[in-house]
């Protein structure tokens, strides 16, 4: 396995499963346990250099690197959202921005806080996003997900990981190479549809889309 690709895989696994088990309640721990078989299949593909690495090692596929990158990314996207759903069963914890805004709003009104942030160099549109986000954060801090719904989504995810591993093994064995590109594109499309149609995954996609990027430049307002 290429060192760089392996390092990226290890980093992803550390991000997804870095929290010690004792940091979670029993429902969350049980939920995360259900993801591990999917992670194992992804790791089996990683040991073969990932779909991108396999494409690079196969002369016929080198011009199709975009598809291979997109498939590897799609699989990681499912894992990210499943981990998110498991770790937010009992609510979405405040992030740095939510803590910062809520702390200041507890000490002053919104108009005063906005004025201070404008002086510090924050833009009006950015602040509109911030205050929209804090409304979302407060409303969802204690929102609840049903574990059985997440379990169902994890089970429905399994065929995509099985196909992902199957594709990798076919490429490694140089079997069925004439249909690999088509199958890769089909799997990407199927995963995209799954992410948008499964209620739990689509909820995760939506909730994560609400979190704005913040450049915490201390010269322009920050924590």
| Secondary-structure class | mainly alpha
Q: What is the H-and-E element order?
A: HHHHHHHHHH
Described by its quaternary structure, the protein is single chain
Count of strand segments: 0
Query: What is the count of helical runs?
Result: 10
The biggest beta sheet reads: none
Q: How confident is the prediction overall: mean pLDDT?
A: 90
- Tell me the span between the first and last alpha carbons: 41 Å
Unreliable residue runs = 3-10, 14-18
Tell me about this structure.
With 223 residues, the protein is mainly alpha-helical. The chain has a domain at 3-90 and 144-201. Helix content is 73%, strand content 0%. The protein is built from 10 helices and no strands. Helix 1 runs antiparallel to helix 2. It is elongated and about 65 Å long. The two termini are 41 Å apart. The model is unreliable at 3-10 and 14-18 (pLDDT under 50).
């Amino acid at each position: 396995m290429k060192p760089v690709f392996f390092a990226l895989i290890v980093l992803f696994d550390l991000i997804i499963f870095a929290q010690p088990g004792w940091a979670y309640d029993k429902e969350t721990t049980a939920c995360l346990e259900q993801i591990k078989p999917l992670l194992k299949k992804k790791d089996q593909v990683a040991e073969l250099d990932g779909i991108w690495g396999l494409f690079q090692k196969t002369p016929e596929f080198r011009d199709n690197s975009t598809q291979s990158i997109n498939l590897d990314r799609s699989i990681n996207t499912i894992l990210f959202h499943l981990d998110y759903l498991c770790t937010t069963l009992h609510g979405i914890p405040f992030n740095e921005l939510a803590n910062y805004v809520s702390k200041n709003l507890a000490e002053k009104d919104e108009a005063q806080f906005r004025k201070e942030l404008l002086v510090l160099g924050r833009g009006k549109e950015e602040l509109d996003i911030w205050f929209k986000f804090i409304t979302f954060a407060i409303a969802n801090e204690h929102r609840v997900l049903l574990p059985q719904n997440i379990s169902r989504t994890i089970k429905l995810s399994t065929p995509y990981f099985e196909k992902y591993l199957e594709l990798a093994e076919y490429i490694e064995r140089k079997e069925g190479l004439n249909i690999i590109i088509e199958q890769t594109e089909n799997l990407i499309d199927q995963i995209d549809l799954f992410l948008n149609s499964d209620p739990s995954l689509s909820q995760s996609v939506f909730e994560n889309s609400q979190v704005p990027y913040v450049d915490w430049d201390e010269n322009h307002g920050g924590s």
